Prior knowledge:
Blueprint lengths: L17 H14 L4 H30 L2 H27 L12 E4 L1 H4 L9 E7 L5 H16 L4 E7 H10 L1 H8 L2 E5 L1 H16 L3 H19 L17 H15 L6 H4 L5 H25 L8 H10 L10 H29 L21 E3 L6 E4 L2 E4 L4 H4 L3 H11 L3 E2 L1 H8 L7 H4 L2 H11 L4 H11 L1 H5 L1 H5 L14 H17 L6 H9 L5 H10 L10 H12 L7 H12 L3 H8 L5 H11 L2 H16 L8 H18 L8 H15 L5 H9 L3 H6 L2 H16 L5 E7 L4 E9 L4 H11 L4 E8 L4 E9 L5 H19 L5 H9 L12 E5 L7 E8 L4 H11 L2 E11 L2 E10 L8 H16 L10
Parallel strand pairs: 2-3, 7-8
Antiparallel strand pairs: 1-2, 1-4, 5-6, 6-7, 9-10, 10-12, 11-12, 11-15, 13-14, 14-16, 15-16
Helix pairs in contact: 1-2, 1-3, 2-3, 2-5, 3-5, 3-12, 6-7, 6-8, 9-10, 10-14, 12-13, 12-14, 13-14, 16-19, 16-20, 20-23, 23-24, 23-25, 23-30, 24-30, 25-27, 26-27, 28-31, 29-31, 30-31, 36-37, 36-38, 36-39, 39-40
Amino acid sequence: MDSVVTPTPSVADERFDTARITAAVDALAAKHSGREDVFRTAVAQLLKAEMVEARAVAQAVLLKDRHGRRCAERLCFVQDEIIRILYSAATRHLYRSQVPTGAERMAVVATGGYGRGLMAPESDIDLLFILPYKQTAWGEQVAEAILYCLWDMGLKVGHATRSVDESIRQARGDMTIRTAILETRFLTGDQPLYDELVGRFDKEVVQGTAAEFVTAKLAEREERHRRAGQSRYLVEPNVKDGKGGLRDLHTLFWIAKYVYRVRETNELVERGVFDAQEYRTFRRCADFLWSVRCNIHFFSGRAEERLSFDMQREIAIRLGYTSHPGMQDVERFMKHYFLVAKDVGDLTAILCAKLEDQQAKPAPVLSRVMARLRPSNNRRRVPESDDFIIDNNRINLAAPDVFKHDPVNLIRIFRLAQKNNLAFHPDAMRTVTRSLKLINTPLRENPEANRLFMEILTSDDAEIVLRRMNETGVLGHFIRAFGKIVSMMQFNMYHHYTVDEHLLRCVGYLQDIERGGNDEFTVASDLMRKIQPEHRAVIYITTLLHDIAKGRPEDHSIAGARVARRLCPRLGFSAADTELIAWLIEQHLTMSTVAQSRDLSDRKTIENFAAVVQSVEQMKLLTILTTADIRGVGPGVWNGWKAQLLRTLYYETEPVLTGGFSEVNRAQRIEVAQREFRAAFTEWPEAELNAYIGRHYPAYWLKVELARKIRHARFLRASEQAGHKLAINVGFDEARGVTELTILATDHPWLLSIIAGACASAGANIVDAQIYTTTDGRALDTIAISREYDRDEDEGRRATRIGEMIEDVLEGKLRLPEVVARRAAGRKVRPFVVEPEVTLNNQWSDRYTVIEVSGLDRPGLLYQLTTAISKLNLNIASAHVATFGERARDVFYVTDLLGAQITAPTRQAAIKSALIHLLASEDAVAKPAA
């Protein structure tokens, strides 16, 4: 990363023998004398074969020594030699100038990433052909000969041909060209011409423009992070462009090179920007990221930069990671990846702070939301402490030994920054990181330290400050159980972030809930105002700790409750509050599971849930925790439907817990929902509106959000006026990345199965479903399917095909099993393993047997399940379909053909066995259930 000189060959490069290959090119020139096209083709074929062999050697060495930087240097060396051979062939054999003029000079220069002297296997090659004056016929011919051969070899080449004057002029006005010239590296040709460019660039472009360059590069970085996803803890990170990736290291080097006029990063130690340890960190991060990137390119065979799920395990194996109890090999690898990304972020902060001191970038504040005018260039004491000073809006140490003489300052510095809206000085953060050994048992047990920590957790900007504590290592040392889940990745598609990042985001969403005013969290915000005041701290610490035991062999909810029982007394919680926190952690998934996968109109569901939550206060706290937890999983996971389900479950359960009394009883809530609908939907005459309201069962009014109710009303009326037996309305939910199909049809016992089969036949994967029946025998089903196309128009056409297929099946024109089997035959194998589970339960309903199915999601699974259940002579009364990443969790309320529950143990065992077999079978979708 920091090298800007031509890479030198290593032992592994000896098979790329430049002298031997040059001699072979000379022989081809003699053989094909006078036939330029044939000669060029032969040279391209020769060099391509040599390149393929050299890359194979590079991959073999990489798999052996796992040193990505050396691999990138080897690949760059090979590419350099190829270009030198081509330049030599062009100028000696094709366009030899007997008496060169002053204009017949050229320097071939590597720019961009290639200019740094490092290349990934599938990287682009960026070349600049420098001419002394304007383009000549000779220069054009030589450049074209080199480029055509490179293209014929299958390489991706970016190129430009410019004079020195033109290069300088364009660099002044274009920051991209300026950056490219900053990273140039001479390859071959006229060295004095290149030296002239470098000298004039330094004098005429760089001098006096450091602040302009830094501002532009940091703005580019922010925009790149925005496109790639702001968090560096996304579980499918972009190794090149993501936060904490290689491009961030490149940006550091660009800025350092421009501002400090260094050629190599080790010179930054001499300039006092990094110390020796930080420079070693820089090298270590670059080495690791290059190992990952080179392996991704070799494995995928393309310029892939995203470390996607389907290649994470393979890269982990290539890099030598192994499984440990509670953590897979891939999870250990990804934890290492995120720790490196964190280190890259720390290095960026150090350099930026140095630039702030030189007025090369604006002074910081802790929270942009809380930013306010204040003197920023003076040093003064921080209120309430003589141990810290304010230095350019950043908290810094008044003396180097403030942590040694009082270790509580390791917590206090974060609280003072929070109270005074101060960013953190990197010198202070360096000292914090190097003082972590002071966080020992006496400090962890110190009442003042624990009081300060709880103040941090329950005050404004808690998420920002806790994240800074986490990045320095303080949070993981102060709460050791938290340290175990730092940078821990869960190898599944449901969680978008690492465990620690998820917990910190949940705290941020909890503060959002408490502030109120966000329509996403109406119920939770209302309940937050109504909980007992002493339980405010309870819900905050529970939110921070609810996943604290992830990565352990046992159930993380039970293990997490055990952690809370040990930790919370230290933090000042009473025995009763500690037990409440432990209970909330143990049950933190319960409300979400019941809301999304149980029939909320079934009295038994509500009674069972009431037996778990035990009191209204505990249910309030659980509702708030569940809301923050779901919202913190990732973009698009929380939606209005889930909010409505939680609302319904809460208000259905409340009367049971209060002995029949409810702040808003069921009949009143139905009436309120209908009145709200009437007020918002004024398009119809009253008589028609009354008739329409009467078509829906009470559960509909409680479980469907208002906007969807209005869409349903318009859809039903338009469909029936048009005389359609079957109608489909298409909607697009961008936040969730799904297409919604709302289907109106005559109710039919096999309708859900037919819809699922039609979706599978069209390659549409169902991620959730809302199923309702009207009092006049019509089915109103909303199916959410994963998007296949970027454009809504294309998705709309796919939805139309699905509708036509459903109609054809209902009319007997099409047999689904054959169509589904053909579609499923070519499905892609997914990288996840989900142990199939099937449970049958007669305690969750008085009328139905509840079958809960959990397994690896795949196109056609819902169709196969519903088909299998029907062929087992079971009637499906209702279905609750949900997908959590790669895991499908579907619940069916069923009876036998006579309407009774399934009670015989042998019958239950047969049903369970058939469904387990279907879930476990590799080719179950391709072979319809018998």
